[in-house]
Amino acid sequence: MGYHIYGIGNALVDKEFEVDDAFFAKAGIEKGLMTLIDETQLTGLLGQLTDTYGLKKRACGGSAANTIIGASYFGAKTYYTCNVANDESGDFYVTDLKAAGVDTNLGDDRETGTTGKCLVMVTPDAERTMNTFLGITSDLHARHINETAIASSEYVYIEGYLVTGDTSRAAAVQVRELARQHDVKVAMTCSDPAMVQYFRDGILEIMGDGVDLLFCNEQEAQLLTETSHLDDAITALKTKAHTFAVTCGKDGALAWDGEQLHRIAPHSVTAVDTNGAGDMFAGAFLYALTHGHDFAAAGRLASAASAQVVSQFGPRLEAAQHEPLKASLTQ
Predict the structure, then answer these.
(1) 255-278 confidence digits (pLDDT tens)
(2) Which residues contact 320 (CB under 8 A, 6 or more apart)?
(3) Fold topology of 3-330
(4) Considering only CA atoms, which of 136, 128, 189 is closest in space to residue 163?
(5) pTM exceeds 0.70, yes or no
(6) DSSP 244-279
(7) Mutual angle of helices 218-225 and 230-237, in 10-degree steps
C-alpha cells in the first residue's frame, strides 16, 4: 500500500496548561522556546503546573506527529516512525495515532522505559513555551525505520527536533538517504528556532545536499542562512532547498515553488494558542501537494488550517474540522 507522506519524529505525549507570564520568572523558564529537561525536572514542573493551573489537554504529539495527523485527517495516506515505551503513556499514544488513521512502526512489542512528554505552557498572548523530556524517544534508531513504507511514499517528512540526539539524527539522515535511493521527495521542518540556533551544523547534516521542500518560520530561515533580513534569507534558501515555505506569523507566509515566490495571505483570527500552527501548516501543505494542487492552493489551505488551529486550544483540529477547510483550495 502506498503512502502520500512518511514521517519520522519524536513521539511525545503533549500536556497543555494555560499559565501566566509570572510563572516563567518563578520557575526559571525561557519563554517562547523549546527547552529539554530531565525526568526529575519533568516531575517537579508537572506537579507545579497541575497544582497551580490544572491540565487543559492531553494528546499524542511531537511536531511531525501533529503534521502527519493533520495530513491524515485531510485525507492523505500516512505512516509515522517514532518510539514510545511499553507504558500507559505509550499505550495512549499508539491508540491516539491509530485513531487518526496513521500507520506506524509501533506495536505491542515496545521497549520498557518512559514515553516522552512535552509540557506545553500557553500564556494569555497565545505564545507557547515547551519543556520537553524526551524519554525513550531519544532512542529513536535506524532499526525503527520501515524502508518498504518509505519506498512506496511520495514524500518523507523529517522533523528538525531529531537533531538533538546522535541516534535520532542518524536515523533522520538514513531516512533522507533511503528516500533518495527510492526517488522519494524529501521534506523537512526546522521545528524551532532553538534547533537552528544551537544545532545548525546538525540541521545541515540532516539536509545533506539539499531537500526538496523545507518548512521554516522567518526566524529559522534567517538563522539557517546566517542572514539578518528575510529577503536575503529567501535568496540563500534557494541553494539549500528546491522548494520551501516560510511562515511569517500574522503576515502570512511565502512559498517558493522552484520558479515563483507566492505570497500567502494571512487569515485574521484571534489567537488563543499558537502551539501546533507550524505543524498544521506543513500537514495541510503536504496534503495539497500530494493531491494535485499547486503551491498557491497549498498555501491557501495551509494558511486557513493553521489560522483555525491558533484560534482554539490545542495543537490539532478535530477530525470533522478538516473537510470544510478544503474549500480554500479552489478559491
Answers:
(1) 999 999 999 999 989 888 888 899
(2) none
(3) UDP-N-acetylmuramoyl-L-alanine:D-glutamate ligase (3.40.1190)
(4) 189
(5) yes
(6) EEEE-GGG-EEEE-SS-EEEEPP-----S--TTHHH
(7) 60
